[in-house]
Amino acid sequence: MYFQLGWRNIWRNPRRTAVITIAVVIGVWAMIFLGAMMQGLVSQMIDNGIATLTGDLQIHHKDYRSDPVVENSITKPGEVEAALKKHLPPGARWAGRVRVTAIASNARHSTGVTLVGIDPEKEAGVSFIDHAVTNGRLFDPKVRNGIVVGQALLDKFETRIGHKLVLMSQDTTKQIASRAFRIVGVYRAELEATEKQYVFVPLDLARTMLQLGPGLSEFSIALPEHQGERELAGALSAELPRDIYRVETWEELLPILRAYLKVFDGFIYIWYLVVFIAMGFGIVNTTLMAVFERMREFGLLKALGMRPVWIIREVLTESFFVLLLGMLLGNIGAFLCVWALSATGIDLSFMSQGAEFAGMSRIIYPRITVREVMVANLVVFFLGLLVSLYPAAKAARFTPIEAMAQT
Amino acid sequence: MAIVETTDVKKIYKQGNLEVEALKGVSLSIDQGGFAALAGPSGSGKTTMLNLIGGLDLATSGTVVVDGQDFSKMSQSDLAEMRLRKIGFVFQAYNLIPVLSAIENVEFVMLLQGVPVAERRDRARAVLDDVGLDGKYDRRPAELSGGQQQRVAVARAVVSNPAIILADEPTANLDSKTGQGLLEMMKEMNEKKRVTFIFSTHDEMVMDYARRLIHIRDGQVADDVVKPD
Question: H or E segment at B98?
Fold first, then answer.
């Protein structure tokens, strides 16, 4: 009967119940929907970061990261391949690359780029390049010295497929290595900066140009669901000689991204707190009004022998129903909004330069996670009951005589 | 055997810097099965006396003993338990829970006492029948007349088999015919079931029904009349 009493009591004043419920609905909706937008933003930043050649983890020569020159290459890739074969989980993929800084030039322009020598078959499932070519193809077998460039670089150089591009770098003998390539494909990436930076050539061609022999600059590894990179990094670090190799996860390779993510995490919890404080005031205020209006009734209940703790339970039961109702509607609203935006996303093109700087995509798709939904609901539920304790305690403190003296 | 015994009970209220002596040493003894009225004008102290007997308030000095329990030695929790199990209340303004039906209002006290569901329902139905409300179990207070609501209040007070029932101006909000009907019902309960009733009233009709009339004036017993059978 307590539940019956609580449920009926909340409908004694439907308008007031609607006010509190709306506050809870808005609070829950804001937490879940905006949390989903932030989560989508963060996920896309991670995906962009990982997909743009980084992968979940990489293996380099120990000095490569501090000085990414061709001398700091992995000279015995077979050693690394053996370690990968031993430790990689099912579903994981890896690709070996040559990666050096170079100058790209044509008749009109020249710019610094990163020359990446790849094996297209290996890159599938590891980086973005195998599915990013929008014009031409990823290396033409008929064209020995094919090169694939980004759309933004193509536009910058005012050139097109079929035209030549000269790349110049330093080889292992410390001589200038220069070669002319023919543009066979154009790719598009999430970020324009990526399109301007990376140029892709066949792996063996890069090795030949740089006189690298069988060497590689890096191994990039992609894991299923992007899980377990730390454990794998630990296992590979233990397997491979530390005086030659260095194994790093994407968080270590992209420290700025990691810092952004920490800031976003903080933002999400601050957002939850702000939303809850605003909602909490509404709950306390309206519940207090309801309690003071029913002073006589609480006095009666005490006169009948109801203990203070039972009166507190009664008021909390009423809050429980209001919170439950608000949470249900808030969740439905949030899920509907996320569903509505899941196809089109929110277009942030108007701030694309700023967004690109932070590694964000132009279009943000919301992403709901079970954890975020549970946290939002639990925060609202438990803190909602917590703030209802104050009006409940007020109700329990009315003495029967004081309360029934009220008219 | 005395079901209520008060000895030199005083009650002083503080109103700011002022002290108001509502009761100035009242000694009473009311037997089980009694049908007594505390009568007097407004401000005489009769309601204060009733509140002390009901454990709603504590005396400043003196003792109040109900069914052998000395209130001065009890905690608030014990007093609440006492009110739950041994004392029934009927108020001037009925004070029913508006969102519960008649039968649910009567069941509510038994719910607080931990009586099982099936037994609650049966007892509530029986006592509502006793007060003449059979067939109106599911009506909410707003759907009942004043007299019917007061009958529900009496049913609620009686259903838990209390030692005493305290009724504070129970007929004040009722017309004379309805009030009379209520008093007849209470009298019948008193005679058949030996339920002790103590009224606080300045209604002549209630005073006429009471077998014992205790006049209170200026916080003291002015007169104590037991009517012949």
Answer: none
pLDDT digits (tens, 9 = 90+) for A93-142: 999 999 999 999 998 899 999 999 999 889 988 888 888 899 888 877 77
Residue in B80, B95, B98 closest to A305 by CB: B80
Cβ neighbours of A404 in B, within 8 Å: 91, 95
Is-contact A244 A77, C-beta < 8 A? no
pTM over 0.80: no
Q: What is this model's ipTM? A: 0.86
Residue ranges per structural domain of chain A: 2-49+257-404, 57-222
| Chain A residues inside the 8 Å CB shell of B142 | none
Check residue B144 and report its DSSP letter: S
Which residues does chain B have with pLDDT short of 70? 229
pLDDT digits (tens, 9 = 90+) for A294-346: 888 888 888 888 888 888 999 999 999 999 999 999 999 999 999 998 888 88
Which residues, including other chains, have CB under 8 Å from residue A305's CB and lie 6 or more apart? B80, B81, B82, B83, B84, B85, B109, B112
Chain A residues in contact with chain B using a Cβ-Cβ cutoff of 8 Å: 1, 4-5, 8-9, 11-12, 296-297, 300-307, 310, 399-401, 404
Cα separation, A100 vs A113, in Å, equals 9
Supply the pLDDT for residue B141: 94
CB atoms within 10 A of CB B73: 9
B156 min Cα distance to partner chain A (Å): 10
Closest among A139, A138, A123, A69 to A99, alpha carbons compared: A69
CA distance B62 to chain A (A): 20
Comparing alpha-carbon positions, the chain A residue that sits nearest to B86 is A305
Q: Which residues contact B187 (CB under 8 A, 6 or more apart)?
A: B35, B209
Structure tokens at B29: 């003894």
Tokens of A247: 């194994």
In this complex, do A307 and B107 lie within 8 Å of one another by their Cβ atoms? Answer: no
The mean pLDDT value for A56-62 works out to 94
Structure tokens at B219: 């916080």
Return the exposure string of A348-387: e unless at least 16 CB atoms fall within 10 Å of the residue's CB, then b: beeeeeebbeebbbbbbbbbbeeebbebbbebbbebbbeb
**Among B85, B95, B107, whose Cβ lies nearest the Cβ of A300?**
B95
Confidence of residue A398 (pLDDT cuts 50, 70, 90): confident
Q: Give the three-state DSSP class for A397.
A: helix
For residue A406, what pLDDT is reported? 61
What whole-number distance in Å separates Cα of residue A8 and Cα of residue A251? Answer: 54
Contacts of A12 in chain B (CB under 8 A): 98-99
| CA neighbours closer than 13 Å in the CB half-sphere of residue B220 | 4
